[in-house]
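Hi team,

As requested, here is the filled-out complex form for the flavin mononucleotide run. I kept the field names the same as last time so the parser does not choke. Let me know if anything looks off before we queue the next batch.

— J.
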Amino acid sequence: MKVLFVNCCIRGEASRTLRLCRVAIEAIHTTFPTAEVEELCLDQEALLPLHSDTLAQRHALEVAQAFDHPMFRYARQFAAADVILVGAPYWEYQFPALLRCYVEHISVSGLTFAYGEDGRPHGLCKGDRLFYLTTAGGPILDRNCGFDYLKTLLGNMMDFKKMDYVAAECTDVIGYPVEEELQKAEEQVRAQIQSWR
Ligand SMILES: Cc1cc2nc3c(=O)[nH]c(=O)nc-3n(C[C@H](O)[C@H](O)[C@H](O)COP(=O)(O)O)c2cc1C
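And here is what came back:
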């Protein structure tokens, strides 16, 4: 099993979300001893949103089927993974813009999805599982827009079937038992990974 860990925990070692991701990676190794986990730390990537020039360049490369171009390295890596583990803090009801830039780079027609003769998209990725981890300063309630967005995109365009999340909430609420909340989330992470067997 090949796991791609898309690390969008911008605060690095201070990140509570990264703490959950580390628990997830440990649980993956324990539950699936032959699993390989590859990490992509978005904070270390020079990711930019598509602009007029890069969009035109990408379109020309797609038409020429020149998918070995370095521009497509994120999409190739994404398409080759069995499991996508995303760690991203809850920012503005969603996630950091860096992750949205990454989404533009993995959404490549001919690599991660393709349009069928009926005009509908279908998936070309090896994997069909997304595991999304987040922590939020306040309560999320029914506004987990980051996960909901990825679920919509990966489910509809790339045929992902197994999409789950774990969230620790109220991490910035003074007086809230944050450590208990994080430990509860860690247990949920372990239980979810066990259920993949
Ligand atoms: C730029 C920014 C935006 C944030 N937006 C929200 C938000 O919309 N709702 C919320 O509950 N918390 C928000 N927070 C608080 C974070 O969700 C919270 O601190 C989270 O635990 C951060 O995760 P981390 O420790 O992994 O960095 C925001 C924090 C930052 C820095």
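Two things worth flagging: The longest helix spans residues 178-194. The radius of gyration is 17 Å.

Thanks,
J.
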